[in-house]
């Protein structure tokens, strides 16, 4: 166990999460997984490491005119400066909605 690498640990955790999902996880769990996969690098804990003024907490989103999942998906398809663009090939509409719903219910 002492020699296990970080990469292996991440792999094991991901594999376990996948198993949990396969064993009957809900859409919300999938939204969380997708968020971790695509958004976490910049928006860990609902923040924003590149532009700290543009977090994805509810109040900040509201100030940006974003109040529902559609608004969040719109940002993914056509992001502002510094954010990766996620088109339908990278994140299909169904998954984009799950991510958006996860964000809305998770970050204040
Ligand atoms: C490479 C870093 C990066 C990644 C990855 C990233 N974002 Fe962003 N995000 C940003 C930056 C930078 C901004 C601010 C852009 C601007 O100035 O309008 C932003 C802004 C946003 C906003 C608007 C926030 C506001 O207060 O106006 C939303 C919503 C958002 N991101 C959602 C997402 C989602 C969902 C994902 C994953 C699918 C994601 N982001 C992945 C960097 C990132």
TrEMBL record:
Keywords attached to this entry: Electron transport, Heme, Iron, Metal-binding, Signal, Thylakoid, Transport
Q: Which domain of life is it from?
A: Bacteria
Signal peptide stretch:
1-22
Segments passing through the bilayer: none
SUPFAM superfamilies attached to this UniProt entry: Cytochrome c (SSF46626)
As for subcellular location, the record says: Cellular thylakoid lumen
Which parts of the sequence belong to the Cytochrome c domain? 26-107
Q: According to its UniProt record, which protein family does this protein belong to?
A: Belongs to the cytochrome c family. PetJ subfamily.
Q: Would you tell me the protein name for this molecule?
A: C-type cytochrome
Protein's organism: Geobacter benzoatilyticus
């Amino acid at each position: 166990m002492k020699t296990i690498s970080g990469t292996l640990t991440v792999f094991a955790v991901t594999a376990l999460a996948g198993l949990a999902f396969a064993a009957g996880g809900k859409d919300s769990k999938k939204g969380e997984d997708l968020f971790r996969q695509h958004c976490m690098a910049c928006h860990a804990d609902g923040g924003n490491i590149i532009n700290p003024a543009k977090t994805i907490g509810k109040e900040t989103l509201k100030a940006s005119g974003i109040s529902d999942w559609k608004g969040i998906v719109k940002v993914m398809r056509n992001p502002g400066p510094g954010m990766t663009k996620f088109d339908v090939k990278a994140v299909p509409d169904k998954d984009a909605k799950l991510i958006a719903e996860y964000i809305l219910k998770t970050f204040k």
